[in-house]
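Exam revision sheet. Question 4 asks you to relate a sequence to its structure. Input first:
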Amino acid sequence: MSVEFEELFDLIERCKVLQEELDQIKEKLEKAGYTVHTELGSLGNRISLAIYDEKSDRYLVGVELDRDAYEFSSSPMERDVCKHRFLEARGWNIMRIWCRDWWISPQRVIKAITSAASRAKD
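Answer key, structure tokens:
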């Protein structure tokens, strides 16, 4: 196997795992009664998932998984400051979820997301 092929294979495998995490979070939020949309926006400003409130016809909270933050940002300043400010200036309530936190305590992550959605609803 060539080095380029191995790198591509590793990237594909990593993306499968990350997609599984996104799907798991979405499933748990939907079981809790939320409407969830995934992978919103363009590559540079992608939001991994967002909770949508049909009554108010708006997104309550946008959730960025660290994988999207790292894969689609060219620098730490862009990833950690500029993107967040850009989205908030456009009315988004954004939070970042670290995959490590999901692996350690999925319940805590779901509670953090649902709490943020509840606060935004009020």
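Marking note for examiners. The radius of gyration is 15 Å.
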